[in-house]
Amino acid sequence: MRRFIVLSILVTWAALASTVVPAGTQDPVLRAPVDAEILDPFRLPNGPYAAGNRGIEYDTGPGDPVYSAGPGTVVFAGAVGGVVYVSVDHGGGLRSSYGPLAHRVVAPGDTVQRGDQLASAVGPLHFSTRIDGTYVDPASLLGVRRVDVRLVPHHTNDRDRFLAAAELGERHALYDLVQSQRGSGQSVRGLLGRVTAIIHDAFAPSSLITGFVAHAEILMAIAPEVAPAAVFRRTILGLINVADPPPCTDEATVATLEPPPVRRIAVVIDGLDSSTVDAGIRGALDLGGAGYDTDDIVRFSYNGGLAPGGGHLWGTDLLRSTYRPEATHAGIEDHIDRFAELLVRVRSANPGVPIDVYGHSLGGVVARHAIADVNDVVDVSVAVTLGSPHRGAPVATVLDAARHRVVGGVIGEAILTADPDHVLVSPIVADLSERGFAGVTADVAFPESVHAVTIGGRSDVAVPASLASAPGADHHVVVGGLDPISAHDEVAGLPEVHREVRLALAGLDPACTGVRDQILDLVVPESIALTQWAAAGAIIVGSRSR
After folding, report:
1. Alpha carbon distance, N-terminus to C-terminus of the chain
2. What pLDDT does residue 160 have?
3. Phi-psi sector, 63: left (phi>0), alpha (psi -120 to 50), beta
4. Where are the domains of the chain?
5. Cis amide leading into 308 (omega within 30)
6. 3 state SS of 443
7. Stronger pLDDT, 145 or 61, i.e. the higher one
8. Please, what is the Cα angle at 169 between 47 and 42, to 5 degrees?
9. Distance between CA atoms of 270 and 382, rounded to whole angstroms?
């Protein structure tokens, strides 16, 4: 999975680092959006949250019509920070924004021509223009033709996905614009920053909190209408859990746990890029210490049947195979079918013996669906998943978005070097994205008869902990280490995870956590998820508008 993180970083870098080249054709002439005098010309602020203009303010009155400055596609039409704006993508990296507005007559996705009415003004109109995300003086573009247009081709035909990503980007930009016009005194970040300073000593390092607050501010601004509203909903539900936490097991009870008194079988399924050459999570989970006999700990092979090791006393008739990392890159439904077949065969060879399943990353998603598919014939007792993208992985979303980009130059070479097996175009990337199989089937629940526990790592950037939960399972977030790159691969070896395994085997709820940890367990993963979704949006938008 580490390679997938590296790839996602590279493709995001590539999306943001494309070179501007001269166009062979010219852009249409832009015109002023209103017929009114200029009240305030273009002025850049002194800092990211200082007061500034970043555009032209016109002396319009309530009800005055506001027109599109040029032909293009409406990519945003809505309220940000209580102010209604419309943004138009003119192609070639050029966008124009208009506000505050009332009585909008356009919606995202509408095609407009120069001079088409967008809305009505509610007072002085602010008109801004951006080229490749950088604010430029609109006056420099009125009545002239731009020739510095990007010509990087794209292959994205998913208009809805482009519009969703573009709207996310516009909310980020417009929220920043609104706050700069108001000045830092009314900035949510400024207010929360002062509160953070008060609780800093008891809460967390200030540098860590600053990042959380920054994302929380954007979260509140963009939540109402775009896809990341799911982040907002999860945040609200998380806060409810903080105020009214679900049942949990106290430390005193944890200290008295004993291994199960009866024989059990553990079926382990590893994650993306695993192989039979490496040890996988079988050893890291310390299942022997949890009470399993060595021969009753078996491992799934992505080529079908059991991997070498375990099951020798009862699995002589079972298929055994080895597999390499590329075997995990096949479509997820093939993996589900093979794992479901293995569960049926393990049950047949061990009638009446409790069967438990442990899945890491991709393996947890495969396990959940396979358990649901064979629930009528295989009564799985306990299922524990670790860092599994049950709701889709933003890293996969970033990589899937990159499939629609033409990446060249030094960065393109770096991506090819890091991806010799062509993982970027493998079926599993699309399947694990938030718009692929994992995201579409996120509502598939563990059967009620299964004691299921989903575990996520607080600092896991491969699979944010908030996306590692699944219906029908108790969810628990573990702190782990501070290295976000290794957090995903190392989660199985954490003492916190070993504790949760013992609790699950005893039929108990996850361990109790303090309020401080509950808040961090909520805010950190959602910040990671939102940032990565925005990265995917940057790639998608780039592939459409350049």
Report:
1. 30
2. 54
3. left
4. 29-144
5. no
6. coil
7. 61
8. 40
9. 17
The yes-or-no verdict on residue 87 having pLDDT over 60 is yes
Q: What are the pLDDT digits (tens) for 345-395?
A: 999 999 999 999 999 999 999 999 999 999 999 999 999 999 999 998 877
78, 84, 90, 94 alpha-carbon torsion, rounded to 10°: -110
d(CA 30, CA 285): 63
Select the more confidently predicted residue: 51 or 116: 116
Buried b (16+ CB within 10 A) or exposed e, 260-295: beeebbbbbbbbbbbbbeeebbbebbbbeebbbeee
What's the longest Cα–Cα distance across the chain?
88
Closest C-alpha to 307, from 287, 286, 328: 328
Taking the CA atoms of residue 276, residue 278, residue 280 and residue 284 in that order, the dihedral angle to the nearest 10 degrees is 140
pLDDT number for residue 253: 95
Range from 45-59, 72-86, 209-223, 396-410 carrying the lowest mean pLDDT: 209-223
Reading the block at residue 19, the tokens are: 């070179």
State how far the Cα of 477 lies from the Cα of 500, in Å rounded to an integer: 10
DSSP string spanning 336-363? HHHHHHHHHHHHHHSTTS-EEEEEETHH
Name residues whose C-beta falls within 8 Å of residue 418's C-beta, 6 or more positions apart in sequence: 3, 6, 7, 10
Structure tokens at 336: 């589900």
pTM over 0.70: no
d(CA 84, CA 174): 10
Are 343 and 355 within 8 A, CB to CB? yes
Q: What CATH code is assigned to 29-144?
A: 2.70.70.10
Residue 369 in tokens: 């669906």
On whether the CB atoms of residues 304 and 276 are closer than 8 A, the answer is no
Q: What are phi and psi of 140, to 5 degrees?
A: -75, -10
| 8 A C-beta contact, residue 472 and residue 447 | yes
Give the pLDDT of residue 441.
94
The CA distance from 321 to 327, in Å, is 12
| 40: three-class secondary structure by DSSP | strand
Please name the amino acid found at residue 437. F
Is residue 516 within 8 A of residue 458, CB to CB? The reply is: no
